[in-house]
Amino acid sequence: MENPSLLPAFTRRAITVLMLFATGLVTNVLAATSSGWDIAKIDGHEYVSVESMKQFYNFTKISRSGSSIILENAKIEMKLNAGGNECLMNNVKFVFSNPVAMIGDKAYVSRVDLAKLIDPVLRPNFIQNAGDFRTVVIDPGHGGKDPGATNSLGNESDYNLKVAGLVRTQLQLKGFKVIMTRDSDIYLSLQERVNLANAVKESAIYVSIHFNSGSRAARGIETFTLSPPGVAHYGSDWKATDNQTRVGNEHDSANIALATSVHGSILRRLGKNTFDRGIKRARFSVLSGVTHPAILLEGGFLTHPYEARLIENPDYQKAIAGGIVDAIGKYRFAVSPKPAPATQN
Length: 345
What we know:
The protein is α/β, with parallel strands linked by helices. It has helices at residues 50-56, 111-122, 156-173, 190-198, 252-270, 285-289, 305-312, 314-335, and strands spanning 39-42, 45-49, 61-65, 68-72, 77-81, 86-89, 92-95, 101-103, 106-110, 135-140, 177-180, 204-212, 221-226, 276-282, 294-301. It has a six-stranded mixed sheet with strand order 11-10-12-15-13-14. A hairpin with a 4-residue loop joins β5 (77-81) and β6. α2 (111-122) packs across α5 (252-270) and α3 crosses α8 (314-335). The model is unreliable at 1-5 and 10-34 (pLDDT under 50).
């Protein structure tokens, strides 16, 4: 069986990125601090040196060019920027919770970004109880009296439903059980959506489908997962309630792995017809309250003149749906326990 990658390949010969380090490493990256991790306290946060990351994750090289720091081996290229919050892993953009810091000429990444983002992406089959699912909850955002974003071509709620329907059909053909929070133009409150998802008692994942609005210049796709405890909602200042653990935080690692798979898969499908706005953290109600691994996708901007026409195009809708479907299969494989290699007598 071909090994699926949840990140775009760095080279044509690259095998799956999210399973590179599945054997021979400690179960919990934070438990390894007594085994050579270089830890520093910076601006009230614990940070881990990039050199420690290089050693633990078997990167073969660190290079510097101005403020850019690049970790790489034959299969992964990770680009960091000193003082910045963006990380590129095989050209998929992630938005860190804290900026990359420098002490002298040494670069450091915050411990929460290492534990809650980098480690689950690089070692997905260490995520507990994530792969045993055949049920997918699809939530087309808005509907009924709430059309979402609008333009002269249509309403977000309708586009959400069209893409969700395509996803449902393709997933069912692959043997998944699909539950839609709505399959017509009806209004559901955010809590009703959460309740419908949580009524699913078997193992499942939850994908909320949306399209975006903003300035006429804003464009591209972005994917959200729930902010870990202590991390602010994207674009907001930190507040004391951010320290509270939400229901959805039980699946922090699975959330980011699922987001990585979906986001990277859609980027590959859309190619030059989109812009990568990154994988981000937020405390949207549906992400906070759902008891399954959950993500929220924004598939483009209805307020962008060119992107609005793309979103109206059935081929664009099919590309997003196909990307989601491919990603769910690859995610399920990557986080599923693998049988131990057979031993020879």
